[in-house]
Design a protein that fits this description.
Blueprint lengths: L1 E5 L2 E2 L5 H15 L3 E6 L1 E2 L9 E4 L7 H18 L4 E4 L8 E2 L6 H7 L2 H5 L1 H14 L6 E2 L4 H10 L32 E6 L3 H4 L1 H11 L4 E6 L5 H9 L6 E5 L4 H6 L3 E3 L9 H8 L4 E4 L14 E4 L5 H10 L3 H12 L2 H4 L1 H15 L13
Parallel strand pairs: 1-3, 1-6, 2-4, 3-5, 6-7, 7-8, 9-10, 9-12, 10-11, 12-13, 13-14
Helix pairs in contact: 2-5, 3-5, 8-12
Length: about 375
Amino acid sequence: MKIVLVILHADPARGGAERYTIDLAAELVKRGHDVSLAATTFAANQIAGNVKQVLLEAPGLTRTSRYRRMLASLDAHLDRAHYDIVHAMLPVRRCHAYHPHAGLASAAVLDKPVIAIFNPRRQVMSDVEQHLLLSPKPPRVLCLSKYVKHAVQQHYPLSDTHLPILFNAVDTQRFTPGPPRPPNPDRTVALIIAQDFERKGLRQAILALAQTGDPKLVLRVVGKQKTDAYQAIASKLGVRSRVEFAGPSSDTVSEYRNADFFVLPTRHDPCSLVVLEALAMGLPVISTRFNGACEIMTDGMHGFVLPDPTDVSALTQAMRKLFDPEARAQMSSACLELRPRLAYPQHVDRLLQIYEQCAVQSLPGPRRMMH
């Protein structure tokens, strides 16, 4: 198949969707497909050699104007070039597959209207998304989880056919557990890796750490964000010495290997990749039902799925249950059994099935949209 993947910036250092798109392009080429990557910027030496690069010209003084120019540039390119599949990671006017990694653009604006005031590009993205998904021939919306599918159905009248689930995947060759570590009787490490500390539940994790009353429990926090407010909370609770703020890390594999369990009491996460990485590494996980990644877990077997991300008492109890090395070892074995289901090849197999379903129809969605 001739495929074009559309992303705003083709730079794996940006994480999430950007890293996914570049890895996917390389994998599709390996499988014999003709793959182009369309973006406004490309990271040097980060794109596989056989992946064609399509530069979308997007000059402008503001992020909103650059996004509009990117849309126009993509439309012009699609007028000239034919693709069997147009797979977009952000709202565009025309595509076969729309893949909202961070959730719907329209949902963010509707849930918090103030976003449109301080982030006008988000409002434009929401408008583009609505025109696309309410068109007579909408694309397939690739849902990272049932949780995401339910959210899409709340905003758009799309059939199940147009809402295939494409669960996130993990590079199981990279995220491989090391040799078993003997339990440290003086230290139990709960690891959290996050970029949005408030939404991901760091405040609740610190409160629960204090409530456990166990001086051996350490909360290790990995992520690029200011920590002053959270250090103040830990100090006020008398646990500042047991909350380790490690900052961002390019070696998360080592972080997983040196932890005893993973905690992410998030309020909203379409399908948290760090949770899936932790499971693939054999780490028991504590997260919430508002995290699509937990759909692969069985509560009490692979860790704990909390019904309420604000329930610090429930989080405290879950942490206490994971103090037991034997319980952690049993859960770790169960987590490792999930590795085949989390592997990247299975994810790409499923995506190609969806592509085959998309390719039978002409490019859906409106060609143009009024500004």
